[in-house]
Amino acid sequence: MFKGTLAQEHLYTQTDAELAQTGLSLQFDTELETQYQESINTLRNKQFVLVTLISLLIFEAICIGIVAKGEVPSQLAGAFLWTSHLLVVVPTSLAMALIHFFPQKKTRRELVFTVLCLLVSLMPAVNHNYLASDGAIGIYFGQVLAIIVFNIAFPMTFRYTAIASALTTSILSLSALMFLDASWRTTSAIIETYFAAMIFSLLASYRIEKSERNSYLLMLRESIRNLVIQQQAEELALLSQTDPLTELPNRRAFDHRLDTEIQKAKNEKTPVSVLMIDIDHFKDYNDYYGHPAGDACLKQVADAIKEACGEGFAARIGGEEFAVILAHSDEKQAEVVANHVCGTIFSRGIEHKNSSTAHVVTASIGAATQNDVTTLDAKSLLIDADSALYFGKRNGRNMVNAKQNAA
């Protein structure tokens, strides 16, 4: 079963439900439909502008071809071109500029598209008076291409395409009946061709949109899967570097961070300090209070260290051992932080009746600093901090000892 956040599971379930639908509907549930429209809106605006530009170039070529072939009397050529451009080129160019410079949402873009379809459908009725009989028939037959282009090439939703196509085909058919000077056989053939072109191109338009929607659902489902897999990988990586009891970074994370800080220190020529922290008489604490109380004690000590070390990187590196990395900190700064950590643990007042050092839980801390970047090394820094720690434990505990004072 798919596992992710509640939002991801909900969207994944919606996507699966839509993919399982076998009906003819081209509409998702409200939430998914909104997301789909938002995801494709910018692309459809760009596609609209591109297809419109190509269509204008083709239209210009057709108009020039009609005049060049002499299908328009020479004295009417200027009027034919002027009317054609006023009816088609001007509004289409304005629509293209509008959508390019002021990208539109779906509904307004579809309305612009519908208006363009209607204007183009008026062209034969207006311009057939300028053409010879054969030229007029050619113009009417040429509108079949317009129907196909509107239904397939333009990136519109099927609903608006079907409405615009039905209106366009009806206007063209009525225009042919009323104005075309041709036999009934020719006129009926033109009208039949209009409706055949409309039906088959609408079927193609439906299949295109259905395919686009299914592709979107498949990509959306896959993207949700990949996102969840990435999140789970990040969570696993975090868990692999986190101590489950104290929720501090573990030894693995500590070693990685120390290597990183040492490399940065070498590059920036700054000192690095490390604090090694050991809870005093912790075995005696466990023996006296029991392991559940020992776990609770470790959590409180971890909180105290995290609170006291400020921006230092605190980690649990062993049973009762903790460590802190202090970047850009010299001996004096490290000693100040170490004393603060030691005092904070003591001030928590965690009862420890079995301690020979104090009546509460205490910690011994060893501090080590390396200033010479040429000799900076993680292993030697840890050895220095560890030796400073055990010097303190041998000399009274509940204290801070820096490497330079270690015996």
- In whole angstroms, the N-to-C terminal distance is 61 Å
State the helix count.
12
Which structural class is indicated by helix and strand composition? alpha+beta
In terms of per-residue confidence, which ranges show pLDDT below 50 for 5 or more consecutive residues? none
Helix content percent band: 55-70%
Write up what this structure looks like.
By secondary structure, this protein is α+β, with helices and mostly antiparallel strands. A hairpin with a 4-residue loop joins β2 and β3. It is built from twelve helices and five strands. It has helices at 6-20, 30-68, 77-101, 106-127, 133-153, 158-179, 184-240, 251-268, 282-289, 291-308, 331-347, 378-394; strands spanning 272-279, 313-316, 321-327, 363-370, 400-402. Helix content is 69%, strand content 7%.
List keywords for this structure.
single chain, 407 residues, 5-stranded mixed beta sheet, elongated
Describe the protein's topology.
Elements: H1 6-20, H2 30-68, H3 77-101, H4 106-127, H5 133-153, H6 158-179, H7 184-240, H8 251-268, E1 272-279, H9 282-289, H10 291-308, E2 313-316, E3 321-327, H11 331-347, E4 363-370, H12 378-394, E5 400-402
Parallel strand pairs: 4-5
Antiparallel strand pairs: 1-3, 1-4, 2-3
Helix pairs in contact: 1-7, 2-3, 3-4, 4-5, 4-6, 5-6, 5-7, 6-7, 9-10, 10-11
